[in-house]
Design a protein that fits this description.
With 296 residues, the chain is α/β, with parallel strands linked by helices. The chain has helices at residues 22-34, 40-43, 49-54, 88-99, 119-132, 149-156, 174-177, 183-196, 214-226, 253-266, 283-288, and strands spanning 38-39, 59-62, 66-67, 77-78, 103-108, 137-141, 162-164, 201-208, 231-236, 270-274. It contains eleven helices and ten strands. The strands form two sheets. The protein has an eight-stranded mixed sheet.
C-alpha cells in the first residue's frame, strides 16, 4: 500500500543533521558484521545512527532482521523469518565487551511465530551479557508477546534494569499505524512488569506528527502513569518511504519541550522529548539518576 499525503511537507530546519563520520561508521559496521549481529539503528534507518556510532553505542536487534508484523510506520523488513540463532546471545555479549559498554539496549523484531514470542532468547541474551560484562546495565525493548504473560515473566525474572515497550501512538491511530497491535494490551504489559517486579524501571515511547492532537498525547501520558511507567520518550515520526504512513505534521521544538514539562508534572521519573528522540536515545542518561534496587 502506498500512502498519499494530502500535501507535501518540507522538513524544517531543526530536522537537519550533520553528516556521519565515515571512519567511525565503518569501524562500527565492521564489528557488527564480524559478529553477525543486527542493529535496529541500521534496520530502522534511525536518524541518530551516526551520533550513536560515534559514541560507540548501538541498539542490538536479536532474532533476525525480518518481522512477522507489518506496522505502517516501521522500516524493518517483514515476511518470512529464520530460525533462532542459538549463538547470538553470546555474540551480543562479546560485542558489549569489545565496545566497553556501560549500558546496552537490546530489542528484537516481533516474532509472533514463536510460542513464547522470543522471551527465552531475550532471557538468554541478558544472561550472556551479564556473564561477560560486569557492572553493565541492561535495557530491553520488547514486543507485546501477544499478551502471553508467562512469556513476559520469563523475561522479567532475568531482572533487566529497564524494560521498555512502546505504545508508539495514540489509540485512535492504531488501526492506521499498527493494526496488529492493541493499545490496551501494551498498557497491560507495562502494568504486568510492575506486578512481577516493582523494582524494574518501565519505559515507553511515542511518535508524534502522525495526526494526533495534543490532548490525545496527554491522555496517553496519563494512561502510562496509571500503569506505573517510569520513563517516557517522545520523538518526531519520519516516514521511511512512500509505502509508509505519511508525516501529518512536524512538531516544533517548543511543543516537544511542552510535552516534556507536562510529562514530568504528571509524575514520570525521566522524560526525553525532542525531534530526534527515539526509544533508546541517550538511554543511559535516562537511568543515571536512579539507583536500581532489585528484589524480584
Amino acid at each position: 500500500m502506498i500512502f498519499e499525503p494530502t500535501e507535501t511537507l518540507n522538513k524544517p530546519v531543526w530536522l537537519k543533521q550533520k553528516g556521519q563520520d565515515p571512519q567511525v561508521f565503518s569501524a562500527m559496521e565492521s564489528l557488527i558484521r564480524d559478529l553477525s549481529l543486527h542493529t535496529v539503528c541500521e534496520s530502522a534507518n534511525c536518524p541518530n545512527m551516526g551520533v550513536c556510532f560515534k559514541n560507540h553505542t548501538a541498539t542490538f536487534m536479536v532474532m533476525g532482521n525480518v518481522c512477522t508484523r507489518n506496522c505502517r510506520y516501521c522500516a524493518v523488513d517483514h515476511g518470512v523469518v529464520s530460525p533462532l540463532d542459538e549463538g547470538e546471545p553470546k555474540r551480543v555479549a562479546l560485542a558489549c565487551q569489545q565496545l566497553g559498554l556501560k549500558h546496552v539496549v537490546i530489542t528484537s523484531v516481533t516474532r509472533d511465530d514463536l510460542a513464547d514470542g522470543g522471551a527465552g532468547h531475550f532471557a538468554e541474551t541478558v544472561k550472556q551479557v551479564r556473564q561477560f560484562n560486569k557492572n553493565i546495565t541492561v535495557e530491553l525493548l520488547i514486543p507485546d508477546l501477544l499478551g502471553n504473560w508467562d512469556s513476559l515473566r520469563k523475561i522479567v525474572i532475568t531482572e533487566p534494569d529497564v524494560l521498555n515497550h512502546n505504545v508508539e501512538t495514540v489509540p485512535t491511530l492504531y488501526g492506521q499505524v499498527r493494526p496488529q497491535a492493541q493499545y490496551a494490551r501494551s498498557l497491560k504489559l507495562l502494568e504486568k512488569v510492575k506486578e512481577f517486579c516493582s523494582d524494574i524501571y518501565t519505559k515507553s515511547g511515542l511518535m508524534v506528527g502522525l495526526g494526533e492532537t495534543k490532548g490525545q498525547v496527554v491522555e496517553v501520558m496519563k494512561d502510562l502513569q496509571t500503569v506505573g511507567c517510569d520513563i517516557l520518550t517522545i520523538g518526531q515520526y519520519l516516514a521511511p518511504s512512500a509505502d509508509h504512513v505519511p508525516v501529518a505534521e512536524y512538531i516544533s521544538p517548543e511543543q516537544f519541550e511542552n510535552y516534556r514539562i507536562t510529562a514530568l508534572d504528571l509524575g514520570f521519573k525521566s522524560v526525553l522529548s525532542g525531534p530526534f528522540v527515539r526509544s533508546s536515545y541517550e538511554a543511559l542518561k535516562s537511568l543515571e539518576r536512579f539507583s536500581v534496587n532489585k528484589s524480584c
